[in-house]
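Journal club prep — side note

Before the paper discussion, L.F. wants everyone to see what a predicted structure for a comparable chain looks like in token form. Sequence:
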Amino acid sequence: MADGKGNGGPPREKPHRIADELRSLIAAGELGEGDSLGREPELVERFGVSRPSLREALRILEAEGLITIVRGVRGGVVVHEPHERIAARSAALVLQANEVPLADVFEAGAMLEPLAAKAIAGMSDRRAAVDALRPIIARQWEAIGDPERFRLANAAFHETLVSLVGNQTLGVVAEMLTEIVVRAVTAVRQDGYAVGSLSTRRRSVRSQERLLVLLEEGDGEAAEKHWRSHMQAVKRVLLGQQAPAVVDLANHY
């Protein structure tokens, strides 16, 4: 960063250098969620740049979802930690440019989860993983009559299943894919995120309970097969006739 170059390339423009420095601080955890960077005059002095250069740097970071610029007397620049929504927004633009259908995005996640189930079944501490999933199933039963609460608990089950494998990269990818599909479906449906009828929600939770039995028994092949079938059922409920639709989230972030 000191020479403003990256990997031997040409010098970075000042706005990009400022954005790079702040981005690195956020990624390293030195700036956390809700932290204030200060107001514009303070930042101009800190970086020794012109107001236009600073504003361009902040515009870059705001577009990436890493900061919010708060206007007014009590305003300033507020930091946001990276999360799956930021990754999803960038990925969604690439998918949209390539005219990728929602079904394709969903299938990527549907491939990960059965493999995660198989991996968990083969773990020596698989009972601890099962114990981590049980309370999420309980939350879904409690929220079975409330579609919105059920949606949140149901999403937590899917995300936790992948995270229990212990591979952080897979976890981030799974969360990103879920974010894209959920937002895309919400954008095109009048009733928001589809969670199906009450009977469908009940079948979904019973299917999760069956998965836990297979995981506890250590039957990886059966767990993978069962969850693959489950995910195809979820696809029919979630996407419905929107499956061929191209990912389009330009106005929904």
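L.F.'s comment for the group: Confidence is low (pLDDT under 50) at residues 1-6. Keep this in mind when we get to the figures.
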